[in-house]
Write a structure and sequence with these properties.
There is one protein chain. By secondary structure, this protein is an alpha/beta fold. The protein is about 35% helix and about 15% strand. It is built from eight helices and ten strands. Strands 1, 2, 3, 4, 5 and 6 form a six-stranded mixed sheet that branches. A hairpin with a 5-residue loop joins strand 1 and strand 2. Helix 4 packs antiparallel against helix 8 and helix 6 runs parallel beside helix 7. The two termini are about 15 Å apart.
Length: about 375
Amino acid sequence: MTTALDRDGALAGPHGPIGVLVCGHGSRNRLAVAEFASLAHQLQHHLGPVPVDHGYLEFARPILRDGLDALRQRGVRHVLAVPAMLFAAGHAKNDIPSVLNTYAAETGLRIDYGRELGVDLKMIQAAAARIRASLEAADASAVADGRSPVPLHDTLLAVVGRGSSDPDANSNVAKVTRMLVEGFGFGWGETLYSGVTFPLVEPGLRQAVKLGYRRIIVFPYFLFSGVLVSRIRQHSERVAADHPELEMVQAGYLGDHPLVLDTFRERVAEVLGGEANMNCSLCKYRAQVLGFEREVGAPQHSHHHHVEGLVESCTLCERECTGACQPDGVPLPVGGSAGGHDHAHGPGQGGHHHHPTYPHADHPLGPVTLRRPAE
């Protein structure tokens, strides 16, 4: 695509002035929403004259339509929409494109859709930086207490992903785990999930403890804070309390690490260059993935419209959700006394193993419009 600066210094292509929309899921957690907005503002700084705005699918303002409206008011006629998702599952493949397609059809706005952050060298390097910081802190604490630091070969890395009903997205978390384990030289690695699929955090960690490693690093592979990150920490601490002989180390989530921002910039450049192609070889909506055969070719629609823009946030906690409303840290359902949100977070989080359930099974998601929601 040929682009140039227009008379006002903005980037323009054949469809007019270009802007960027960062598309998020949304959260009732005020800290998570603030972190997302901060990342969008930092991306604006990196992209210079290109207008950048953001929007959410649910439970926060601005919603995606608000962000698109704001860009149009700034003179944008061609939007590069980038999903702020680590991996491509239902939200990135179906919900966000559905909203963008509808808006484009209603307004005539040109919207090109980018791909998720994915399994990317920069993302793995950002993850490594968070893990390295936790290792350095743990080793320094050991030395201060007169103990010898636990060697890497006696350390187990547990990477925790969000969990999805899309097996391709879940498998990508496992690949990240393997890259980190071999890169650092840990003695072992386990991939756990905060919900929807299995193994879940607490039962997974209880199994990992049986392997006999002296230290476990728990790393939430998440972009932002939120109830799920809080839940991961709570369940890790519960296991640690039952095993005082074990050193349980909490690594920080990805956040706005500079390499994460660099990856977002690359995704924007891919859309601009017409190179934003998702990996569809194992997508359950396009291939006969074992166990998900009925979902091939399912119609595309969004199931978030009923909570779009709903912003009644829980006020039990100061800023970050601690799960104070329930003893196991699981938020109350929509409409509950605490105003929590329990949409598709999967099976119970207790110490017993539950067979996985897939909450979206009755609401199949459809094939995504990969790059150009508006033709």
